[in-house]
Amino acid sequence: MAFNIDTFKGVLPGGGARPTLFSVELTGAEYYKVPFLAKAASLPASTLGTIELSYFGRKVKVAGDRTYAEWSITIINDEDFTIRNGLENWHAKVNHASSNLRSMTNYKSDAKVHQYGKTGNKIRTYNFVGLWPSEIGAIELAWDTNDAVEEYTVTLQYDYWTVGTGAGGITWNAGVESGGVSARIDDSGAQISGGSWGVSI
To answer: Is 45 helix (H, G, I), strand (E, B) or coil?
Structure first.
């Protein structure tokens, strides 16, 4: 393929998605500051296991089970400790430090991470289902740490994630090896767009 800078610019007309344009939401009134103070996060990975089958000295690889890696966010700490207090209370209800008992039957919650376009519109949303904090990171203190604000990392486990579009709907795909149908539906089930044929993953 011959080099042509205009061809490259043609497939990236908006200049690419920016890692700084995001926000995080945690379910719960005590986490109202999270969209402002969650300074780092990630869009989740998608991982399928591999099963190797042997046949006459050859390996055939088939798809295995899906797994979900832990998700981490970095929080800027305010002097009221609102977010950290909520997380520590959540931890205590799952397993109390002294009694080793659980006082919260349904301890799982949900979260979202939004990706924004450069015009401020939501272009993608990942929804984390069955989420809970497995680790609330330490906050490092030191007399010689000047011109800095405290921050800490929270590690969260979850059952699975789903992905939605910026318009508040979800992307639904149905396909087979030789083709498929892709359509977008809103939260009520009404079709927003669709009818495109081809392999869609």
So the answer is: coil
In this structure, what CATH number is given to the domain that contains residue 74?
2.30.110.20
Q: Is residue 92 part of a domain?
A: yes
Q: What number of helices (H) and strands (E) belong to the chain?
A: 3, 12
- 49-60: pLDDT as tens digits: 999 999 999 999
Residue ranges making up the domain that contains 191 = 167-201
- pTM beyond 0.85, yes or no: no
| CA triple 46-157-92, angle to 5 deg | 170
Does residue 48 fall inside a structural domain? yes
What's the rounded Cα separation, in Å, for the pair 191 and 196?
A: 13
Distance CA 153, CA 167 (A): 30
pLDDT digit string, tens, across residues 100-147 = 888 888 999 999 999 999 999 999 999 999 999 999 999 999 999 999
Q: Which two three-digit tokens encode residue 3?
A: 């080099």
